[in-house]
Write a structure and sequence with these properties.
The chain has about 110 residues and is of the alpha+beta class. About 15% of the residues lie in helices and about 25% in strands. It has two helices and four strands; from the N terminus they run αββαββ. Strands 3-2-1-4 form a four-stranded antiparallel β-sheet. Strand 1 and strand 2 form a beta hairpin. The longest helix has 9 residues. The model has no long low-confidence stretch (mean pLDDT about 85).
């Protein structure tokens, strides 16, 4: 949402190709998470691996297949780094559905 707000457009989140989108968190909350932290979504447990460095694939409009915005440059210019999102590994599987609260727990596991 923050990137679209910065560009003053409605940016399709599918452009970022995430497996799970979290809502109702402060913008850039994932930048506070560290390797080894755990997210619990329902009964599913995920371990944070590392931040996602965004590449030029995010510059492509999914409907037109044309390059429109330089998303990594926007991230660097307006938000001081080109990280957006995190890679995570499933520690314990379980159902994940929109009915679950976005984020039920964050724990430090080191």
């Amino acid at each position: 949402q923050a990137v679209g707000d910065d560009l003053n457009i409605d940016l399709d989140p599918l452009r970022f190709r995430a497996n799970i989108y979290l809502e109702d968190l402060p913008a850039w909350q994932e930048r506070e998470w560290q390797q080894g932290d755990e997210l619990h979504i329902g009964s599913c447990r995920l371990q944070i691996m590392r931040p996602i460095v965004r590449c030029a694939a995010t510059n492509v409009d999914l409907e037109t297949a044309k390059t429109d915005y330089d998303i990594p440059a926007v991230l660097r210019r307006s938000f001081e780094r080109d990280h957006m999102g995190v890679y995570a590994e499933v520690i314990s599987g379980g159902p994940v559905a929109p009915a679950y609260s976005s984020l039920s727990a964050l724990s430090r596991c080191r």
